[in-house]
Specification:
This protein is mainly alpha-helical. It is about 75% helix and about 0% strand.
Length: about 140
């Protein structure tokens, strides 16, 4: 019994001395990287939940509006179908980084081509309308 106590006490003292000499590790860099990774994942998860929630709310609102329109048309006796709402156009594709001068050149060329197409469409409509207003007599 004395031998075990004589062996255990010096071992305890040496362990305590070893622990007191060690410096605490600096984990601030590791903690900063972990915090930034957690924040990124939390933001991504939050955004995905927001999108899902908004899409659910919009579908439910559309169903409610359709039912209200249908009920109103039944009460009025008219046979009006609910108008279909066109989805918003998709955002333009980005082809890389462009300077302001490049974008203004593209916009001015795009506007010119759009106005030329609109003029062509107007002239073809007018020609088609002239043919309808002056029908030829059958032979």
């Amino acid at each position: 019994m004395k031998k075990t106590i004589l062996i255990a006490i010096p071992m305890l003292v040496s362990v305590m001395a070893f622990q007191s000499c060690m410096k605490p590790a600096d984990n601030s860099k590791m903690n900063a990287t972990i915090d930034s990774l957690v924040n990124v994942r939390v933001m991504a998860f939050k955004d995905s939940l927001t999108k899902v929630c908004m899409s659910d709310v919009m579908t439910q609102a559309k169903m409610k509006a359709d039912s209200m329109i249908l009920a109103a048309s039944k009460k009025s006796g008219g046979k009006t179908a609910p108008k279909k709402v066109a989805p918003p156009p998709p955002p333009p594709k980005k082809e890389g980084m462009q300077g302001l001068s490049d974008q203004s050149k593209q916009n001015s060329q795009g506007m010119k081509s759009l106005s030329n197409e609109a003029k062509k469409a107007d002239t073809t409509k007018k020609k088609g309308m002239q043919g309808l207003s002056n029908p030829k007599p059958p032979k």
